[in-house]
Amino acid sequence: MSVSTRVDLALLGIRGDPPVSRGAGAGPSADGHLVVDGLHAAIPRNPLSPYVFDGDRILMDGSETGMTVQTIARPRFYDGHTADGVAYEKIARLHGRDVLATTVVQTCVRYAPDQRCRFCTIEESLRAGSTVAVKRPSDLADVARAAVDLDGVTQMVMTTGTSNGRDRGAVHLARCVRAVRAAVPELPIQVQCEPPADLAVITELRDAGADAIGIHVESLDDDVRRRWMPGKATVPLAEYRAAWAEAVRVFGHNQVSTYLIVGLGEDPDEMVAGAGELIDMGVYPFVVPYRPHPGSLAVEIDRAGPPDAAVYEKVARAVADGLVVAGMAGADQRAGCAACGACSVLPAVGG
What we know:
There is one protein chain. With about 350 residues, the chain is of the alpha/beta class. The chain is about 30% helix and about 15% strand. The strands form 3 sheets. A 7-stranded mixed sheet has the order 8-9-10-11-12-13-14. The longest helix is centred in the C-terminal third of the chain and has 18 residues, at about 310-325. The radius of gyration is 19 Å and the shape is globular.
């Protein structure tokens, strides 16, 4: 599959429902998960796409595309239940072929309409009854053990909605990491949170057993941040930079990452330059396209669509070139979104 075709899939999506898919939530949502030409691919499900997944192949307008497609079976751990009867599927979900992902707190103080990130649907899955508001550390430990034993999961991602506390949700993340680490010592874990006001919490997360961390800014342009994520924009970029620097000190070079979303209005050349500064810090810029998520403000009010394919490919290639020069690869992260790579074309262009 050419890079351009992979870009088209990431932006146009597919018609059809792969066995492993996901609706609204904090991470990749309205996506189907497949392995395409040997690489993880989280592909939007779009009823208007020219690409069709027919259960075994991806076709374009009824014709063969030549892509090698492996489906991912519904995981067996989904059939388990906690001691009080909650389905394991509501505690954590399979992403891609071998990543266990969970949002440990499914609510966010920034979800009010005037504060909410316009691309986010973190609380919509809670309203739909497909998850629970707060995941208990002991339940996550049981689910992780089952996912490893039954389905061969090789890494775990724990993210969280932002809390009112100075830790911004990181303390509960640490509790969850400790419990999973005790139950499944061999499972690499990435945590994701906003920059904590007290940077010592970053060390607490590492001491709890986290292997990598994502501190996601989404854009390095303050005008874009105020427009798309007004709540998060109240945290100055200087706090992000301080948190990234401390995280690199604590977790190590190329074990820290941040999302950069193409299609929010940031100048592409400025994004590439900003990504270069992150790379120089030892932070992996995980460059993804904006994806319209049903239930988000961007879809329901703004009617925002995905970015231009040529722009996304240009940015991804330029960032990948910088990563190659720096000797940084997503696959070298111990766990997390960059290690999986399904939501980005960076793995296809050398990142």
